[in-house]
């Protein structure tokens, strides 16, 4: 044996709590960097907001704020991962043209050349706000599950089913308490629990992650081949209800159209299985769909799903990513709000660097630190 060779430090054992896109991306990049990773998820992978989101990706739509670098880095990582994972086939990755429109029963149909033919309803054209170079989409549930499958098969990530009930920081590491009396230990833990982050008693006094409920429907038109890859950011002006309302339309490669509505802050239920849609909100989305396009009128579609998800949000509308003050080895990654699917890869890669290397270089995480809430 060469006496000059130094023994390798064994890879860190890291526990990631949460099987949404942030938790799975973090587990993937941790394991890719050599850590031994255990992922704990209480229900199923991408069962909450990560599986119900529109999954719209935009290079430039955060450029006027502090999250620009995070968005741009993550948009690029999404592109790289799509090539690596054959995303166009495995999870519906594709570029989009993105338009803004106004919608209302009293609006006269527009004949604007920038509108695709299937947008033939009471719509007033806004402008092109994204091109195939700057906007894209994925199926978020499929992306999260495909990425985790690679993390398991190629990098040895272990998946444990259980509800996380608490975290104990000890001198030699951290211990995650799981329902039923189980424990999972490691050198560090990353809490990526979305809107359920503040359900942990250790975190509820340190910062606030609240939930905003968003409704969504997926409609399958009879003439699905006519629906081109044009995302629509709409402003709907109802004739009676208070408004306006801002629904978004995202056609998918599977010949269906995902539509989501405005968000409203709600109490966080015990678990994702307790989140259910409100019938009035679903009816509103389906009504607006028929106003936007004859292809999406009730008699011309079948309804594939009617759901609701709860986005994790913060009081300053920025994610929380960093080590928790006074809890060495305990990290949090939550509060990504509307852009959680876009931010997933860069957040995961940055958290992996922070945990294993002591600092993130792919994205500067200082402005997202949980210590910013300390008075």
Automatic annotation (TrEMBL):
One of its GO terms (cellular component) is cytoplasm. Residues 14-354 form the FAD dependent oxidoreductase domain. Keywords: Oxidoreductase. It comes from the Eukaryota. InterPro entries: FAD-dep_OxRdtase, FAD/NAD-bd_sf. This is FAD dependent oxidoreductase domain-containing protein. The keyword Translocase does not apply.
């Amino acid at each position: 044996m060469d006496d000059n060779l130094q023994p390798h430090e064994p890879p860190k054992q890291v526990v990631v709590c949460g099987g949404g896109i942030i938790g799975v991306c973090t587990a993937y990049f941790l394991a890719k960097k050599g850590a031994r990773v255990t992922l704990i998820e209480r229900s199923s992978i991408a069962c909450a907001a990560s599986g119900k989101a529109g999954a719209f990706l935009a290079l430039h739509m955060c450029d006027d704020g502090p999250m620009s670098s995070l968005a741009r880095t993550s948009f690029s990582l999404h592109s790289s991962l799509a090539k690596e994972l054959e995303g166009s086939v495995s999870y519906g990755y594709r570029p989009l043209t993105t338009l803004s429109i106004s919608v209302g029963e009293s609006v006269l149909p527009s004949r604007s050349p920038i509108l695709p033919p299937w947008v033939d309803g009471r719509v007033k054209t806004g402008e092109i706000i994204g091109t195939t170079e700057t906007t894209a989409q994925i199926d978020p549930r499929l992306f999260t599950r495909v990425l985790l499958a690679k993390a398991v098969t190629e990098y040895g990530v272990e998946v444990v089913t259980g509800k996380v009930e608490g975290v104990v920081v000890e001198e030699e590491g951290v211990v995650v308490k799981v329902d039923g009396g189980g424990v999972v230990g490691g050198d560090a833990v990353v809490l990526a629990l979305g809107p359920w982050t503040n359900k942990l008693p250790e975190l509820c006094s340190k910062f606030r992650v609240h939930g905003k409920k968003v409704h969504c429907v997926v409609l399958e038109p009879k003439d699905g081949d006519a629906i081109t890859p044009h995302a629509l950011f709409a402003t709907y002006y109802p004739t009676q209800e208070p408004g306006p309302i801002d629904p978004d339309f995202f056609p998918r490669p599977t010949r269906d159209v995902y539509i989501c509505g405005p968000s409203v802050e709600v109490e966080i239920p015990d678990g994702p299985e307790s989140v259910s849609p409100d019938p009035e909100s679903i009816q509103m989305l389906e009504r607006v769909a028929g106003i936007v396009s004859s292809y999406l009128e009730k008699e011309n579609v079948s309804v594939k799903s009617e759901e609701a998800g709860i986005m994790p949000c913060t009081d300053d509308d920025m994610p929380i990513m960093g080590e928790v003050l006074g809890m060495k080895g305990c990290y949090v990654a939550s509060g990504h709000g509307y852009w959680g699917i876009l931010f997933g890869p860069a957040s995961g890669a940055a958290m992996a660097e922070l945990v294993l290397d002591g600092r993130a270089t792919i994205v500067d995480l200082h402005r997202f630190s949980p210590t910013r809430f300390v008075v």
